[in-house]
User: Fold this.
Amino acid sequence: MKITIKFFSSLMEYLPDTADGNAIELTVSDTQTPNQLLERYKVPREEAQMMMRNGVFLPVEARSQPLKEGDVLSIWPTIQGG
Assistant:
């Protein structure tokens, strides 16, 4: 199945060179989870502070549930202020 993953801000450094800007379209198995995608791209979970699936907030406890065909997974890092 095909999904799109988008990394924002400092997380963009984890995307492969084939990414289009901050996004990459992937073909994955129907058991693929957001947490597995973090592992695939070597993104430390503690750096992936906020996730949205199709524009809806994805709480930590839901990140081990499989994605679905056409899902768009957007991931933001921890935001720090000064």
In short: The first helix runs from residue 34 to 40. The chain has a mean pLDDT of 93.
